[in-house]
Structure formats: C-alpha cells, structure tokens
Amino acid sequence: MRMSKYYAPTLKEVPNDTEIKSHELLIRGGFIRKTASGVYTYLPLGTKVLKKIENIVREEMENIGSQEILMPIIQPAEIWQKSGRWDDYGPEMMKLKDRHDRDFTLGPTHEEMITTIIKNELRSYKQLPISLFQIANKYRDEIRPRFGVLRAREFIMKDAYSFHDSEESLNETYEKFYKAYENILERLGVDYLVVEADTGAIGGSNSHEFQIKAEYGESTIYYCDCGYAATDERAESNVVFDTTNEKENNINKVDTPNVKTIDDVATFLKTDKNKIVKSLLFKSREGWVLALIRGDYELNIAKLKTFLSDQTLTLGEPDEIYKTFGVEIGFIGPVGIKNVKIIADHSIKNMKNFVVGGMEKDKHYINVNLNRDFKIDYFADIRMVSKGEPCPKCGDPLKEIKGIEVGQVFKLGTKYSEKLNAYYTAENGKTKPFIMGCYGWGVSRTLGAIVEQLHDDYGMIWPRNIAPFEIVIIPVSTKQKELVDKAEEIYNLLKDKYDVLYDDRDASPGFKFKDADLIGIPLKVVLGKKMKNGKVEIKLRYEKNSQEVDISKSYDDLLKKIEQKLNEYDPKIYFNSIDKD
C-alpha cells in the first residue's frame, strides 16, 4: 500500500476530549473518528487491526469446535421479559419501538436470542454438547461513555454460547474456552491476568475475566503470588475484624448540626471512623434495602446486587428518601427505621457502642448496639477489599494492579433455559432444561487495551501479528530518483511476503518518521544519505539505533536482516525490560 493513496489522516495535536493515551493515539494515528458520544467510525488503519484481532479470535473459536453464526442486532422485548432481564439491564439497554408500537432492544448480548433459536432445534441429548459464536456489533447506553473504544455505546464483540446435558460437560467446555482465551492473549503478545469476576446482569454461578494489564485500566484487580486474582467487584480477603470486651452503654441521641459525612461525624464526635456505621438506602425490586458497613470501609454495590440477586438495585435518590422516610440522607440509620430489609457487612458484627444516623435532621445516635437497638435481617460480605489485606487462599498481603477487561466466561446453568422453556430429551426419556455457558470477547475493546499497554511517548507499538503494517519503507526524499527507484524495488520485493506500507509522500523525513512511530509499524526501512554507499537503514519501532544493510550487490542480506529483525520483535519483552530497569 502506498501512503499517498491511503486514507490515514494523522494529527499532530492532541484532541481536546481524549482522556487516556489509547484514546488519544487512536485518534491522532488515524485509526478512529468520533461520530457521537461513545460511537466511533473505524478508518482503514483501525479496520485492519480489528480484522486481524477478529481473525485470531475466530481461529481460536474454530480450534475448539465452536461454530460461527450471525444473529440479528434487533431483538424483541418478549424474550427479554421472559428471562426477567428487560428490567434487570436497566437504562443501559437501548430500547426502541417499531411502527406497530412493539418493543425491541438493540442487543447488548444474545443469551435470550440464542436460547430461543435452539430450543426448537436441539431436542436430544445426542446433539449435545454444542457451542455457537458470532462476531457482531453490540449496544449499551453507557451513562458515561469514556476512554474511547474501551467504554463505548456501540462496540464489536465475539459472543459464544454452549449447551450441555450435564455439569461435567459444561465444565469441560468452560475449560476449553478458558484455554482458548489464554491462547488469544498469548498470540496478541500482551501481559494479562485471569481473575475471578462478578457475574453481573448475565448471571450464573462462576465467571472469570481476562484482563490486559494497563497503568490506567478501568478495572482494579487484587491478586497474590499464590495464584489468587479477582476484580474489586468480586475480591475477598481473610481480614479479621477486631472483637471487644466493652460493656454496652446506654444509647443516646445527640445533636450533630450539619454533620452528614463519615469524616464530619468522626471529627465532630471526636471518634474514629471504625466506630461509625454507614447506612446506605437502596431501591430494589421488592422495596427498600438498608446496607450497613463500618465507617472506614467502602460498600461494594456489585456484591450487594449479587447477594440480593437483583441487578436493578440502585442507590436511593435524596428527594425520594426524604419523601418516604422524612429524613435527609446524611442522618439515615437503622434504629427505628421501618419497612426496610437490613443487610449488614460482617465488619459490624463485633462492633459495640457505635454511631449511626439518628433518623432525624442534625441528630446521630451514639452507643448503639446490635440486637438490643435494632435487628439485622442478613449478614453478608458487601465490602470492598483493600491492598495489603490477607489473601483468602494463602494469607499473604494482596497486591493491586489496574487492568482492562477484554474477555469473560460464565457458567450460566439453567437460568435462561428454564425461563425460556428450552428443553431437550435426556437419555432416560425425560425432558430437562439445557445447561448453558456463555463466553464474551470484546474485539474493539482489545484494540484500545493493547494500545493502552503498548505505547511510548511517540505513539503505538503494535505486536507484529495485529499491526496494520509490518514494515514501512521510507525514502527521505521523493526528488532523488535513485532513492525512489530503490524504494520501489524494495517495496515490490517485500509486498508479496509482508504487509508493507510504502511512504511515497512528498513530505519531510521527520514528518514521515513521526507518522511511522505514531502508527506503530514494527520495522522501518529507510533510504537516505547512506544510499550513496549502497546502504539502507533498518530499525525496529522501539530501538534507538538503526542497523545499516548493504544492498549494492543484492537484496539477499536485506531480506535476511528483515526476517531476523521481525522474528526478534516483541513489544512485551521490550516493555518488561524497561520496567526492570
């Protein structure tokens, strides 16, 4: 491909609305253009990388026997209403009506659709197991689209679904997808972690996420050298909460004028935050829920949703709370509150003589005690873990790292088959619901995540097998016939074996070099002033110094050096060596 004919509009300046490096570089490098908030057009460079990522994902799916299909993006509301997720997905689901006033959604995922498709087609245990996948656009109306293609409203995803007649069969397929996802990441040439994950609105019993490590990743991961790793939504620890031999003091309501936050309460009452209980009101399908947690900890809403099996759970709005309970949110507490389910974190189980909201403006209770002053409906782990807490497996301090989720696998069980009446005939002649698994891979997210991990001050550093081009040929001047002729010869020599870009633009050498670095092409072949001695220069994207190669007699040495350099090229090893230094 000749650069003069290629649509790759690079930018010198940093766009104003970019938040992280991957977003900035993909726009500056001419890979994407913003159409609307969270919606992007992929230009030729971006499309080339996407297709290469897709091909790796597709090959690994086919290697484990998964079969490709393509389902409609528009899905009828009825199947989502039957599964119960029409409400579960909440405002993230893009909903629309047709001219007959029938409800539809632009599919955020396809569990309901695939279950509906197969339920009248797969009838016997003899047809199982089977897995099907597609690579298609998905839609989620993110409340705050950000980070470019990492948190978009329209995105490209590979989603796969498997159907089984036993848990053992599901486990075998789950392991196949797990290994296939590891293979994808190995082939992409990135550092990654596999972590235990929350199942969220998808549901099911078990889930793992595949996270690409990144300094500014949107996920927080807690891990240990023993092998334990989990996202902050799922992470646990073996922290031991203090016990006390304090005597229970008499409860007392005290004045706390304009004191609403935990920090303010602690300062005003001259007490520690670990002697205060935070009270947070949520709206659930079944009414109000009051979540309690020790004042020095943070509530994990994902854990609370999972415990309640309610993905519609939302934090109560101040106006609605005041209208219902007659109290401002800063003074809500468990003593005397009516018509709520109270869920308490284990951190408050051993507390005595603690502080809670007084259910009255500018009032707090002190010397509050469990069971005497109020009752708990359920205790649960609804707490965010912190770095340094003991690992739940070995007890060593947990470490913290940032990551970007690119894949997730789920054991769904019979959640969808039972609700959508998808049954097969078992070997004993009885009908049973399919046991299911689902497996997602964010293709467009992968593009952004790789850039977020593999870049420097000059631009992207793509792994060879997904780089838009493997080699760029740069004559420093298009006015010198000898340089142009040699560049043409080298281009024609290489283009049948490699993905080659020939920068034939009438532009300065510096401009061409900067574009090549920005775009992230693995290898440069430069024809400059040393051509008078019959030599060209070759240099890997991350190398400081170039290597001279004599082409005065033949191109044999050049071909050998190019192949050698490309085989040596490994951005992951390069970045790891920088970290060690």
UniProtKB/TrEMBL annotation:
Pfam families cross-referenced by the UniProt entry: HGTP_anticodon, tRNA-synt_2b, tRNA_edit
Sequence ranges assigned to domain Aminoacyl-transfer RNA synthetases class-II family profile in this UniProt record: 38-463
GO biological process, one term: prolyl-tRNA aminoacylation
Function: Catalyzes the attachment of proline to tRNA(Pro) in a two-step reaction: proline is first activated by ATP to form Pro-AMP and then transferred to the acceptor end of tRNA(Pro). As ProRS can inadvertently accommodate and process non-cognate amino acids such as alanine and cysteine, to avoid such errors it has two additional distinct editing activities against alanine. One activity is designated as 'pretransfer' editing and involves the tRNA(Pro)-independent hydrolysis of activated Ala-AMP.
Catalytic activity: tRNA(Pro) + L-proline + ATP = L-prolyl-tRNA(Pro) + AMP + diphosphate
Domain remark from Swiss-Prot or TrEMBL: Consists of three domains: the N-terminal catalytic domain, the editing domain and the C-terminal anticodon-binding domain.
Species of provenance: Marinitoga hydrogenitolerans (strain DSM 16785 / JCM 12826 / AT1271)
Keywords: Aminoacyl-tRNA synthetase, ATP-binding, Cytoplasm, Ligase, Nucleotide-binding, Protein biosynthesis
PANTHER family tied to this protein: MITOCHONDRIAL RIBOSOME PROTEIN L39/PROLYL-TRNA LIGASE FAMILY MEMBER, PROLINE--TRNA LIGASE
Entry EC no(s): 6.1.1.15
Protein's recorded name: Proline--tRNA ligase
InterPro entries membership: aa-tRNA-synt_IIb, aa-tRNA-synth_II, aa-tRNA-synth_II/BPL/LPL, Anticodon-bd, Anticodon-bd_dom_sf, Pro-tRNA-ligase_IIa, Pro-tRNA-synth_IIa_bac-type, Pro-tRNA-Synthase_IIa_type1
Record SUPFAM superfamilies: Class II aaRS ABD-related, Class II aaRS and biotin synthetases, YbaK/ProRS associated domain
